[in-house]
Every structure is written in structure tokens, then in C-alpha cells.
């Protein structure tokens, strides 16, 4: 009896497998618009890709951009001494006539802090203290100047540089 049950189970499995394999999906079984690209094999998706078409015509010109620098840029720099045991004082380099300052910077080789590094008029200002210095130091101030750039019309940076210098001198005199 046991072998008859096993034979019946095997027969059911074989008949259900062959019935499933006998069902073939054709276009008659698929409703239009129901198959998506994701339902296709990678080989079928690749077969759908054709060759690239010809390039389209040139589009219309874009709007005029903002004006850039008319001419070359140049760096103006100078090195100033910073005596030992001093708070230092602001030093400025200026851009030549016909150019405007676009950036700048300071390199300090002193035994203290850089306390001014800012635009000043049509140039750049910098200052460093050397209050802890036994040896004299140096301060190099750089301005990046460009032709075709208008020089600043206000001296607000110069005023802030002067105010910073005054505050630093006051602080240095209080520590002595």
C-alpha cells in the first residue's frame, strides 16, 4: 500500500509538471500595453536599442554673459620690517593706475599674530605684531590687480584698517 501511495504522488507530480511546461505564452495571451521593459530579458532589452541618430541642428545663441577681465592680472608685493618687541603697524601695497584690486594677502614672519589682512583703497593692507620677538621679523603684503577692473570708490576698508591698527596699539601698550 505504501508503494501505491508513493506511485500516486509521483504520477501527480509528473502530470502537473508536464501540464505547466505545455503552456506556452503567445501574443494572443498578452493584453496590449501590459509587458514592460523590466519584464524582458537582458538580451531582449539589448536587441531593442538601435543605432544613434544624426545630431540635431544648432540651437539659438544664448544671452550675453557678464563682462570679464579686460586685461591681464599682476601681483604687487612689498616686504616690510617688523622690529622686535613691537605691535607693528599696517603696511599697504597699491595697484598701479588702470588696474583694480581683486584679492590680496599677507605673509608674516614675526613672533606674533597677523592682525590686519584686508583690502585698503585700491590695494591691500597687512600688519603683524612682534611683541614676543627677540629677533626682528618681516611682513610681506600682496595685492592681485587686474586691468579692466574699476578701483574701489570708497575707503571704508582703509578706515577699518586704521581702526584695527589703533585698537592693536592700545592693546599692546596695556600689556607693557
- Largest sheet geometry: 3 strands, antiparallel
Number of helices: 3
Radius of gyration: 41 Å
What do the pLDDT scores average to? Answer: 77
Strand order of the largest sheet: 1-6-3
Distance between the first and last residues' Cα: 114 Å
The helix/strand series, from N terminus to C terminus, equals HHEEEEEEH
- Overall number of strands: 6
Helix content: 25-40%
SSE class: alpha+beta
Low-pLDDT segments, ≥5 res: none
Q: Beta-sheet strand percentage? A: 25-35%
Tell me the overall shape: elongated
- Please tell me the total number of domains: 2
Describe the structure.
- The protein is α+β, with helices and mostly antiparallel strands.
- It has 2 domains: 2-43; 73-153 and 161-175, no CATH class.
- The chain has 3 helices and 6 strands.
- The chain has helices at residues 2-22, 42-48, 156-175, and strands spanning 73-82, 91-94, 99-109, 114-120, 123-128, 137-147.
- The strands form 2 sheets. The chain has a 3-stranded antiparallel sheet, with no helix packed on it.
- It starts with a helix and ends with a helix.
Amino acid at each position: 500500500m505504501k508503494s501505491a501511495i508513493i506511485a500516486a504522488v509521483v504520477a501527480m507530480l509528473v502530470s502537473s509538471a508536464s501540464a505547466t511546461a505545455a503552456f506556452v505564452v503567445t501574443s494572443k495571451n498578452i493584453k496590449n500595453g501590459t509587458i514592460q521593459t523590466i519584464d524582458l530579458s537582458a538580451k531582449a532589452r539589448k536587441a531593442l536599442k538601435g543605432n544613434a541618430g544624426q545630431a540635431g541642428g544648432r540651437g539659438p545663441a544664448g544671452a550675453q554673459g557678464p563682462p570679464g577681465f579686460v586685461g591681464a592680472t599682476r601681483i604687487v608685493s612689498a616686504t616690510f620690517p617688523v622690529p622686535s618687541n613691537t605691535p607693528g603697524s599696517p603696511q599697504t601695497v597699491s595697484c598701479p593706475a588702470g588696474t583694480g584690486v581683486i584679492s590680496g594677502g599677507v605673509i608674516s614672519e614675526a613672533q606674533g599674530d597677523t592682525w590686519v589682512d584686508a583690502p585698503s583703497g585700491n590695494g591691500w593692507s597687512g600688519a603683524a605684531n612682534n611683541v614676543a620677538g627677540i629677533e626682528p621679523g618681516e611682513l610681506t603684503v600682496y595685492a592681485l590687480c587686474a586691468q579692466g577692473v574699476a578701483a574701489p570708490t570708497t575707503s571704508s576698508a582703509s578706515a577699518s584698517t586704521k581702526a584695527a591698527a589703533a585698537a592693536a596699539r592700545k592693546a599692546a601698550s596695556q600689556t607693557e
